[in-house]
From TrEMBL:
Location, primary (coarse class): membrane
Source taxonomy: Eukaryota, Metazoa, Ecdysozoa, Arthropoda, Hexapoda
Domain of life of the native organism: Eukaryota
Keyword Coiled coil: no
Name the UniProt record assigns to this protein: Transmembrane protein 161B isoform X1
A GO CC annotation given for this chain: membrane
Keyword RNA-binding: no
Amino acid sequence: MALLGAQLVITLIMISVIQKLGAHFSFAKWLMCSTGLIRYLYPTNEELRQLANIPKDKNKGKKTKNYNEKNSETFHIDRCLDVQLETAKVCYMDIIHLKFYSEYQWLVDFSLYAFVVYIITEIYQLWFPIRDEVNLSMIWCLLVILFAFKLLLSLTVQYFKGEESIGERSTCIVMGFMYLLVAMIVLIIDENTLEIGLENAYNCFNESATTFLNKQGLYSSGPASKIFIKFCVAIWCSTLGAVLTFPGIRMAKMHWDLLRYFKENRVKQILLNISFALPFIIVILWIKPISRDYLTVRIFSGRNMPLLSDNNFEILRLIIIIFTVCVKVYLMPWYLQAYLDMAYHRTEDQKKEAGRITNIEFQKKIAAVFYYLCVVALQYLAPLIICLYFTFMYKTLGEFQWKWLIDSNVNNTNVISSGTEEKYPTSRSFVQKEEPTEDLYLTLDSLKLIFNAGVYKGIFGFATWWTCFSYFATTSVGLIYQSYFSRN
């Protein structure tokens, strides 16, 4: 049995490409610097003095000790001061010093490299199916998911560190408990209605693991309690929903602003609304009576068979997810520009206020928008990346095939089998071997049969659906909030 083979070659080539190309090309940098983003520059102290007719300091003629002392002088200006912000194109030298830029660059670039590895592996499998090799592209996908989740978690933790973040902390905690409640409700819904697949995954795992333990002389009715597993799944759902709370709210705010900016452009408004609604379409594709039964069971007049087979329906769901992610990445510059425009709107709103403000506070209000640009980019991309790579793992580990896209006459019957259909190896698999490599082969064989395609289908199918659901639910809550409380 070849443990690695072509998979190791593909991985080594990609690692070499990262080392050689990573220093010269960055897709993350291109997204920021080559898509026409415009940032707003805060006025200098001299410009504010001239606008406010504030006389120069009497000590101006004296030499100051350093540059920072000269530019940290504080004075007050009217909030209604007519300040016109200058603009500049976002360039690499501007963003390299921003907060979370290195994390943003690494996530986006590594996701791209993992995507290339996955695509090459899938093409290779079309002609040379991988049976005895370890699919290393799944390791790449898993690393991308873990890194994206870690970044979202670190961004959420920032809301718990500041003393002025009481509202944000409360929001995260409340949303976490709300998602915990929703997850518990989802987990008890009959799978003939909502086909999350966890019930079948548990049965497959329990049966195959019990068979394996019995083969080893360890008799057990099952290695894990269903209630305990579902409780752990609910905790994971709650955590993911909590870390997606502020990315979803941020996304809703930018979407609301874009709809107002493009009020006169109906085509762009339609495109934005379609992009917003696509995650909802993905969510309802897991509701069996209105999706699978309609497309794979019902026979329409004039046809002698359903529109799609089970496998083709699964592939259709995956294609819609990939299409959704592509649309949202394409629209990313629009959303980031809507965020950068907050600096302009903050200035315009301030002009309607009475009172005075210091020059430092005013400059910080403008500069803070650009300073957190990479944080906003991470909040926009990380949920999409998690959803996309869960989809890849769902497709590959669930053993679905792309062949029907190439040949429509292919009748793919590769439907996920249950644990009872899996056949354990002959006595060869459980006989003690002298060679260490044989022991490793037997261990991998056993793991493959315990964690079979039915188990993976339930795990990653539910993970994909829940990510889309929580992302859409949070953005919807944010959009409702904006529609009721946002200023016109």
